[in-house]
Design goal:
Layout: E1 5-18, E2 24-38, H1 59-65, H2 69-78
Antiparallel strand pairs: 1-2
């Protein structure tokens, strides 16, 4: 991302990785850190081959796209800070 301006840290949480079947993989515990940035960039080009899709989403539409319950729970707790 070009010309991203750091606004603030939004927090962190832990959860297990999800396997390709949508089940938690108890072999891999992740710590996820969330940060808020501002940018005027409109095009998004992901570089992670395991996550090849990226798009800008209005804040009101984020929760419905999240598939892991802990991701959704965390976002719903912090969305009013965005």
């Amino acid at each position: 991302m070009k010309n991203a301006k750091f606004i603030r840290e939004l927090g962190s949480y832990q959860r297990y990785k999800m396997d390709k079947n949508g089940k938690e993989d108890k072999n891999e515990l992740k710590t996820i850190y969330m940060f808020l940035f501002h940018t005027e960039q409109r095009d998004v080009k992901p570089i992670d081959p395991e996550n090849p899709e990226a798009k800008w989403v209005p804040k009101e539409g984020v929760s419905e796209l999240l598939t892991h319950p802990k991701d959704k729970e965390f976002f719903n707790k912090i969305k009013d800070k965005i």
